[in-house]
Give the backbone structure.
Amino acid sequence: GGDIIYSSRDPSRDSVSIEGYFYIEEKKLDYIVRKLRDFINTLPRWGIYPQEAVINTKKVEEEDWAESWKEHFHPVEISSNLVIIPSWINYEPEGEKITIKLDPGMAFGCGTHPTTRMCLEALAQAPPEGALVYDLGCGSGILSIAAVKLGAKGVIALDNDEKALQVAEENCRENLVEGQVRIMRGELPYFLRERDDLPRGDIILGNLSTEILVETLEDIKKISHNSSRIILTGIIASKIDLIKEKICKSGYSLEEIRYDGDWAYLKCCPGKGKNNGSG
């Protein structure tokens, strides 16, 4: 097994760097490299056409491994009033900034990924005061925690990954919001289709892959009402037309589109399928 814990893009070179750790015997390294190369060769199936990839490896001593991955994480200022802080860093916020302590658990980020950041920015710009929020694909729980700290009365957080749920629970405890975040395990869209006991939310956050969003849009109607605000990220920008078409066919009114590099963010609400978004 292993964890991919860091990625970055160099706009000047149009390249992406991904760093991961594998807990394996050294004799299995060649096998892992071959599997990575095989995976890279399958990317064109998904519409991704990379140039020749360079794979570098380095042995990390076991005593260094437990701490070395933390070097990549630093405090992240999302807006003038919201800061994400890795839990192991001592940080004194200025003024009345809202802080979120986060332990990404080696497998999650600290709010730097464009999809997460766009969601956080939307919450900070229009705080969910008194709202019931759904966090679909909650991961580390960062959006759930931010929603509560920005005024939400409660959050229902959903993920299908056991490790994600464990990290989310710990992060909620660390930020003293565990009583306001209900963490549930389930796979979309089936979880929503099979449940009839879920309350309707005022804000629906969906930081999900394009494919899962397409499958889940109709089912989001079960947990939303006429004035709900629906925020969707995790969308590859090149597939934005597919999502826009599905949103309109599903009866939503598209209100806003934002882009950050290769990623897109959409805000919509239940309506008559109008396309008011630009981009």
In short: The chain has a mean pLDDT of 85. The chain is about 30% helix and 30% strand. The radius of gyration is 20 Å. The CA atoms of residues 211 and 235 lie 9 Å apart.
